[in-house]
Amino acid sequence: MRLLHTSDWHLGRAFHRVNMLGAQAEFIGHLVTTVREHAVDALVVSGDVYDRAVPPLAAVELFDDALHRLADLGVPTVMISGNHDSARRLGVGAGLIDRAGIHLRTEPSAVATPVVLPDAHGDVAFYGLPYLEPALVRDEFTVEKAGHEAVLAAAMDRVRADLATRARGTRSVVLAHAFVTGGQASDSERDITVGGVAAVPAGVFDGVDYVALGHLHGCQTITERVRYSGSPLAYSFSEADHRKSMWLVDLDADGRVTAEPVDCPVPRPLARVRGTLDDLLADPSLARHEDAWVEATLTDPVRPADPMARLAERFPHTLSLVFAPERAQDDPQVSYARRLAGRSDQQIAQDFVAHVRGAGPDPRETAVLREAFDAARADATVREVAR
C-alpha cells in the first residue's frame, strides 16, 4: 500500500505580516496532484489542520475545498486533530464525512477503532491518535500521572490490544501528534511541555509498522518506521533551512517500509542575514537573497536611522528586523531578552527566585512551580477549546 504522509497545514496562519492563504491553496492543489500522479492508496494527515481552534472563514472554506477534491479522487484520507485544532469543531460531521472516504479521528476514546483499508496483500489498520492533552484525557486513559508519555503509552496499549485481535498479517499505521525524543523543533511549534517534559520516547510506538507523526515542522526521520512529515510551508525564520516536503511511503506485504520525500511548492525562499547595516547593504554575496523573505539581524553598536526603509531598498521583502549589538555578555546594556534566550518559563522562574532570595528553589518548590506552569497551560488549553 502506498501512503502519502503530511501534517501541520496550519490553515489560516500568516507568516509575519504576509497572508499565506494563497500559498496554502497552492499546497492543497499540489497535494491533490501528488495523490493522483503517484497512485497513492491512502492519505494521512497528522494534525494541526488549522492554526487555531476558531479558524478564519477563509481557512474553513479552503479546508472544505480540500475535502471535496480529495473525496472526488476516491482515495481514502485519514486525519487527526492536533494541538492547534479544536477537536470538537474539526470532528463535526465526521460520521457523514466518513461515507465519502474522509475519516476524521478527533475523539481520544476512539484510538483503538481503526480505519481498515484492504490491498492486494490483506488489510492495513489505520489508528488515529489525536493530540492527547494529558490534563484533559488522564481520566479517559486512567493514568495516575498526567504526562505525555503516560497517556500516549495507554493509548498505544489499546492500539496493540485491538491489533492483536485482527487477522494474522494485518499491517498497521498509527497517526499521532506529539513531540518524540530525537526530533528537532523550530520556533513555530506551540510549547506542549507538561511536568517539565515535552518529549516521549519513540519506543512508545513499538509494535506497529509505520508511525506518521505531526507537530514538529521539520521533515525528519526518527527511525525508519517513525517519521515526521513536517509542515508544508515555513511559518518562522527558524525553518529557513528546512526542506518542505511530504513522505511517500510504501508498505509491502510484510510491513516493510520504504519512504521518499516529495517536495512542496515554496512561495518564496527564506534568508537570515546578520551584520552591520552598512555591511548588509554592500555585501555582494547577499545578492542571492534580494528576492527572499528576509530576517535581518543588525549588529551595529548604535541603532542606525531608518534601518527597515534602508534594508527594503535592497531587500524589498524584509519581514523581520532584530537588533543585537555586539557587546560583551557582561555589558549592562545587553538586553534582557538576550539573557533569557533559550530558557524555559520554569528556568526563568527558578532564576527569579534565586535572584530575590539568594538561593534557588528546593525540590519541593521546584515541583510547585512546575505544577503551576502545567495548570496555567492546561487552563489556557481548556479556554481555547471552549471558544
Automatic annotation (TrEMBL):
Lineage top rank: taxon: Bacteria
The keyword Nuclease is assigned to this record: yes
InterPro entries reported for this sequence: Calcineurin-like_PHP, DNA_Repair-Maintenance_Comp, Metallo-depent_PP-like, Mre11_N, SbcD, SbcD_C
Annotated function: SbcCD cleaves DNA hairpin structures. These structures can inhibit DNA replication and are intermediates in certain DNA recombination reactions. The complex acts as a 3'->5' double strand exonuclease that can open hairpins. It also has a 5' single-strand endonuclease activity.
This protein's record includes keyword Nucleotidyltransferase: no
Organism taxonomic ancestry: Bacteria, Bacillati, Actinomycetota, Actinomycetes, Kitasatosporales
Keywords, sorted A to Z: DNA recombination, DNA replication, Endonuclease, Exonuclease, Hydrolase, Nuclease
Domain Nuclease SbcCD subunit D C-terminal: 267-355
Single GO MF annotation: endonuclease activity
Family: Belongs to the SbcD family.
Protein name: Nuclease SbcCD subunit D
Gene Ontology biological-process annotations: DNA recombination; DNA replication
Chain ranges of the Calcineurin-like phosphoesterase domain: 1-218
Description of how the protein assembles with itself and partners: Heterodimer of SbcC and SbcD.
Pfam families: Metallophos, SbcD_C
